[in-house]
Structure formats: structure tokens, C-alpha cells
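In practice, a research group might receive sequence data for several interacting partners and want a quick structural hypothesis before committing to experiments. The following worked case mirrors that situation: the sequences arrive first, and a predicted assembly follows.
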Amino acid sequence: MKRRNFLVAAGASLLAGCSKIGETQWFDTLADTAESWHRGLHRALGGGRITMAPEYSRADISPFFRGNGNRTVDTPAYRAAEAENFANWRLSVSGLVDNPLDLSLSDIRALPQRTQITRHDCVEGWSAIGEWTGPQLSSILDLAGLQSEANFIVFRCADYFMRGQSEDSTRVDYYESCDLDDAAHPQTIIAHQLNGEPLPVLNGAPLRLRLERQLGYKHAKYLTGVEAVASLDDINGGHGGYWEDVAGYQWYAGI
Ligand SMILES: Nc1nc2c(c(=O)[nH]1)N[C@H]1C(S)=C(S)[C@@H](COP(=O)(O)O)O[C@H]1N2
Ligand SMILES: [Mo]
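A structural hypothesis for the assembly, expressed as C-alpha cells:
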């Protein structure tokens, strides 16, 4: 099954499961499977409604949206990109898709846009409210044609942290991931604007993920690629994200 419109397809297959085998048996079978399907199931059983993160009004916007983690990217390539106002920045869409894409910022701006005023919560104990604009991740995945083997979306970033002691230290790239349920969520967007202005370098210029039902570290900044994969096991440390790999943070960081 192609997941060209994968939200609808997922709903249809859940209904098909219901009518074929008894609802209880169906529930037990799915409840034993992966954590991600488990959560999807609970949402589906709740009347098929999607839980939305709270949205705020313009008056609630924080006067300054602080930067956290990396506040720029320490590479010659990024400095060059910044100097030309990110005119040649690309977002690659790769992995388990029918049509791999290489999107420019104008391609991204030409897609239908969503603007949302949401609260960002960082595990370090601060929050900020900002207005984010960008296309929904689902429209990008629909263009690329997600294949049925895909279970997760991995977000690749331009920045990195150095880990380990002085001369033994190694470069570890920042990355993140989510399941298809969150990838399909209406508030999951690839933002190129904060408060009506192009995304500042501090906050991930020129593109960053907004994954509104999860904590701050999931919102990957300095996005270079979106990759559909079947499993997270072979991606970097295998835990689905930079902080998950190096510090044992939860992969599903629900708020
Ligand atoms: N690429 C990248 N994305 C990242 C980080 C980072 O260091 N690098 N930090 C994360 C953390 S912990 C938080 S709280 C938010 C901070 O976003 P902000 O800099 O816009 O406040 O970005 C997240 N995404
Ligand atoms: Mo954070």
C-alpha cells in the first residue's frame, strides 16, 4: 500500500482490522506491538480525533525567543550559506520515498503554509511562545510519496557537538526523529519563519522542525534533510536522536 495520503490510509487500515477480527482480539494484538503503534491506536480509539497542542494569540508571544543548544553552526559551509542569506539552502527528502526531493527555500515557501502560535518547553526548565510558519511535513511527504515500509521520519541537521576529551573528541551530528503519527499531525511543520520574519540563526535558520506535542529537543534546527526509514536501530546511536543517544533522553518526549 502506498501512503500517498498516509493519514487517510492509516485510518482505513485500522477500520479494516476492526471488521475482520473481533475488536478485543485486534486490540490485544496491536497493544503488544511497538510503542509507536500503541500510541496511534489509543488516539484512533478515542474517536479518531487528533490531539492538538494549545495555540495562543499574538498578545502571548514572548518578546524574545531565546536560543538553546547550538545557536549557530560552526562550519565553513554554514557561514557561507549565512553570508548569502541561505539562497542555495536545500532540504533533501530521501529514504523510503517514491520521489526523492531536493527542495529550495522557494519550493518550501510555495507549498501551502501553516502559521501557529505555540509554547516551546525545554527540559532545562524554560518556555517561550512564538509564531511559526511553514509547510506541513505531511504535504512534503505526500509530494515525495512515502512507501509502505516507512515507519519513522529522521531529521538531519547541519550542526554537531564535540563529544569526549580534547584530542580524542569526535564530532557527533545533531538529529531527531518521529513516528508517522506525529509526521502526519497538522501542527508538525517545517518552519522558515518565526514571528513573521525569516528564522533567525539562533533559532535554526533557515529551516527547523516544529513538533508541537513534544519537548524542545525534538524540534530539530538547521534542517538539511528529511529521511523516511523503517527502523531507527541503524541510525547513529540507534535511539532516534542526539540527546536520546548521548544522554538517554526519552525518544517520545510528549508534553
Ligand atoms: N540542530 C539542533 N536542533 C536543536 C538543538 C540543537 O542544539 N541543534 N537544541 C534543541 C533544544 S534542547 C531546544 S530547547 C530547542 C531550542 O530551540 P531555540 O534555539 O529556537 O530556542 O532546539 C532543539 N533543537
Ligand atoms: Mo531543550
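Before designing any experiment, note the following. The chain has one domain: 6-247. The radius of gyration is 19 Å.
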